[in-house]
Amino acid sequence: MDPIRRKKTARFSEIAVAAGVSASTVDRVLNQRGSVSDAARRRVIEAAKRLGVPRILPSSTHGLLRFDVVLGYERDNAYYQSLDAAVQRHAELLGTRVVVHRHYWTPDREADMLAFIHHPPYPRHGLIVAAADTDSMRAALLAQQQSGVSVVTLTSDISGLAGSHYTGIDNRMAGATAGYLLGGLARAPGRVVLMVTSMAWLAHIERVEGFTSVLGARYPQLTVDAPLEHGDDPERARAHMRTALRKEGPVVALYNTGVASAGIVSALGAARSIERPVWLTHEATAEHRLLMGRGHIDLVIDQDPDAQVLAALQRLLHACGEIDSVSAGPTRFRIETPENSIDQA
Question: Is the pLDDT score of 119 beyond 70?
Answer without folding.
Answer: yes
